[in-house]
Each structure stands twice: as structure tokens, then as C-alpha cells.
């Protein structure tokens, strides 16, 4: 049933457009999460449940939550007003409606159809794990080096200069 | 993994283990000289191990790696250039305030990324290599984070390189969606079995070309080059100009020749257009440039334009010419950036034309090396650059690429103008500036560069013999 795919795809497109055109960072991030969730529904409908789960766990879960934390922490001084501004209905009503549509889409899809099967079995985590740690083992190790470079870089570029003041001289 | 796999991976293992060791050493003892010495030794060991594994090639490690004489040659060039950059970095990095040892860790990871590109036989390794290289380069470019120039360059490179990586990845995905394989050889088979290419595949190759064009700074994807060259520390600019471009070139040549891209009419037209545009845009923008680092950036755009002519020759001779050209271009560029590095202090980067005024009367030795490098870039006889250009023109003529060769010759003339302008500045009357003391490592590097430029210019036969004997695809 293509209609489920089209609903999820339209939600993804709308929310991505809203994410890049929004002026408020938190607002954009909410839409971005929604866009990622919609894409994971598309993956599910394409008979790829594992990648759909990864999309939710890694992108919508870990990375976006981190984003939101950082953005909220940067506004720490003026938290009261900004928080009120963020919580106005204008801000969350559109994402909520879109999310509700997506949820409905997913529930109906799960109830009504088996995911499209083009003669291929869905790929399961076990197979992915086996191929990552046998055929593509070297690739995984290179990815580890890549991450190491990233971590060291983040440490170097983000590290603060130490204050040389004595602690008694610091004004509380 | 068999024993032979491990033997063939020795250079990579050395380059991959070295940064981890440095990291552990730093956590115990932060000593610049120890870290530096270890880095140089590891690079030397990696370079030596290439000769050691030479008898066991060609060898493929399914499905990602292909280690043959061609890739070992590129590997050698890449590691050797990284070694020269390390030599140049000693004083430049030493005088920085704050932590400095991380520089060598990142230098190793970026070298590893570049080295992996030389042996890539699969889109996954291609992409991992490019990403390892790019992520390390963001950090190296923005390494002096107290300077706003550096940060600007780093962020520019970060954003543009991420977009280009996205293009590359999307292109790969489209090709994978059509053919169901990401291995270069298997893609060739899939291509051969289709007589009509689907729009998806064409779009895929086009998007990959965008990603590669960005990394090589070919017109119209060249906008980042001058800013990044100017903002990055001088040795890092040398690294970006040589190692990163050479590695991408290695994988491009392999991919292009395996797929015989030169047989396709459209590809032929597109590559020709990119080559001609790169030559003209690079050279014309360089003419009025007063900042030497930016000027070298533009000159590197033009040089990559000359080099991709080789892709269209479609012969093993062309590949050999490209390797010779890359070697000469690497040595020359490292020489030019080396001079800038040695004349720079932590406060003042020697990058403006005035900084070089009358250099010959104060530091004759450095001025001579700089002159040699510039003459070699311009392609004047007795230097390596002349033989390299001659070789490319010869192979181009044989393949009948008249239009490309003519624009290359016209551009060499344009290029001569701005190289000679710098040289006249070097010999003009002296101005009052105090120059930093010269270091031992810097002198050794410059001496090596000067000797190689002259040696390859006067007696290139031995290198050409070696290349012709071993390298083919």
C-alpha cells in the first residue's frame, strides 16, 4: 500500500523544510527530529526494520537530544523567558500535529499490511553484525581511527585555557 | 585475515598505531621533542616498510583493499610528503603557545586517510579514507584556534567538505542502488552488461565527480582553496596542497581507468571543460594576487587542471606521466610552502609579497630554494616542473588532445608572469625586516627539495625508468 509511504514522505518533506526555514533553534530541532522519525517510518515500510530502529535510536534519540541539550544550555542565563517562549502553543502545535499524523500512519500500516516484500527477507541485526565484524572488519577499525581523530580535535579546539589565578584571589 | 594480508598492511598498521602511542605518551609525559622524534621515526618506518612489502604485491584483501605497484607508488609519495611536512612543522609548531603535541596525532590520522585512498578498491574504503582525511584536516586547518583567520578557514572547509562528502555519498548510494555492488571491478562488469546507462547511474557518477572535484579544488568547486590556504598554518597548507590532493587523484585515476571513463563521449567533454576552466581560472585569479599563500592556492588549482588531462589519455603511459607530474608538483609545492614556513613566526605569517622583498640579500640560500620552486612550478627547463609538463604534453599529444594541450601551453605562459613577479621581488632592494633564525630540520628539508628539483630536472631518466617498469593498471 503506497499511501502509507506517501504520508510518511510528505511529513518528512514538510518537517525538513520547516527545520531549515525556522528562525528559532529549538523549533527547528523539533522539526528535524520529526523528519528523522518520518524517514525511519519510510525505512520500515521498505522492509528494513533494523535500519529504521537505528535511525530512531541514533539520530532521533542520541544526536538530537544532545543538540537540544546544548542549545538549551547555551541559553542558561535567560532561561525563564526563553523557556516560556519555547512552550507557547504556537511553537509545538505544528510538530505535534505532524507527529500525530505520523503515529497514525505507522499504526495503520502495522495493522493493515505486511511490509512490502520484494522476495527478499529483511536484514536482521545478526547479519549486519556478522558482516561488520568479518568482511568489513578493517573498515570498522578505520572508522575507529576516524572517531579518534574527531575526539582529539574536539578536545583540542574546545579546550579552555586554564586560569592562572590563585584560588584565594578569585572573587566569589 | 591471513599472514600475507598483515604483511601487506604493514605501512597502514604503523601509521595507525603511531597516533595511539603518541596519545599514551602525551598522557604520561608532554614532551614536544619526544613526540616529534617518535613521529619522524614512525613515518620513516612506514616508508621503509613499503620496500619490504614490495615483493608480495599485487595482493587484494577482499573486498576493500587492492595493494599493487601503483598503490605502493602513491603510498610512497604520500608518506614521503607527510615526512617532509613533519620536518617543516618542527619549528613552526614548536613556537605556538598552548598544547602542540596533538598536531602530530592528527597529522598521522590524516596521512592514514590519504594512504587508504591509494589502496581503495571499494566505495566504502574510498569514503572512509576521504572522511578520515577531511576530519583530520578540519582540525589541522583550525589548529591555531586563537587566530580568527584559522578558525574561519577551518569552518569554511568543514561546511564545504561536509556538503561535498554528502554529494559523494549520495552518488555512491545511487550507483549501489542501480548495480548492487560497490567494488570498482564489479561496477565495471555491471556497466559492461548494460548498454544503456540509466539516469540514476549517470546522476550517481555526476555527484561523485562533484565530491572529488571539491577535494581536488577543480573549477567550479574551487572557492575554498585560497581562504583555506591562507588561514591554515603554512605546513598544513603544504599538506592540503600535496597529500590530500595526491591521494584523491590516486583513487580518481584508478576508478577512471578501471571504468575506462575516457571512452564515454560526455565524460570526455565534461573532464575537458573542467580541465580547461581550472587552468584558466586558477592562473587568471593568481595574476593580481599579493598574498603568496593565496597565490600558491590558485596555482594549485591550475596545476590540478593540467594533471587531469592525463585522465583522458587512456593509456598506461598517461598514468606514468601523472605519477611523475605529481612527484614533481609535490616536491615543488612543499619547497614553496617550506620557505613560507621557515620565514614565519608565531605572530607574523610571512605571506605578503612585501615580506619577501630583498630576501636574496638577507637569506640567499632560502631565496635560491624559493626561486627554484617557483621556476619549477612555472615549468622552466633544468627543473623538475619542466620535465613533468613536457611528459604530460607528450602523452597528451600522443592521445590527440590538441585543445587541452594548447590551453595548457597558453596557461604556462600566463603562469610565468606571476611566478616571475615573485622572483623579481626576491631580488629587489632590501627592506628593513628581521627574519627568524633558521632551523636544522628546515634547512635539511629545503636542501632535499632543492636537490630533488634539480636532479629530476637534469636527469629524470632513472625515475621515469622506475615508474615505467613498475606502474601500470
How would you describe this structure in keywords?
heterodimer; A: 172 residues; mainly alpha; Four Helix Bundle (Hemerythrin (Met), subunit A); B: 473 residues; two-stranded antiparallel sheet
In N-to-C order, the SSE pattern of chain B is HHHEEHHHHHHHHHHHHHHHHH
Instruction: Give the end-to-end Cα distance of chain B, rounded to a whole number of Å.
Output: 25 Å
Please tell me the overall pLDDT of chain B: 90
**Secondary structure category of chain B:** mainly alpha
Give me the Rg of chain A, rounded: 22 Å
Structural class of chain A, by secondary structure, is: mainly alpha
Q: What can you tell me about this protein's structure?
A:
The complex is a heterodimer of chains A (172) and B (473). Chain A has helices spanning 2-21, 25-45, 49-74, 79-86, 89-112, 125-132, 137-158. Chain A has 172 residues and is an all-alpha fold. Chain A has two domains: 2-118, Four Helix Bundle (Hemerythrin (Met), subunit A), CATH 1.20.120; 124-159. The longest helix of chain A has 26 residues, at 49-74. Chain B has a domain at 261-473. Chain B has helices at residues 3-8, 10-28, 32-53, 69-94, 102-118, 123-141, 148-179, 184-193, 199-216, 224-231, 234-258, 265-287, 292-307, 316-343, 359-362, 364-378, 384-398, 402-427, 440-458, 461-470; strands at 59-61, 65-67. In chain B, strand 1 (59-61) and strand 2 form a beta hairpin. Chain B is globular, with a radius of gyration of 21 Å. The two termini of chain B are 25 Å apart. Classes of the chains: A mainly alpha (172), B mainly alpha (473).
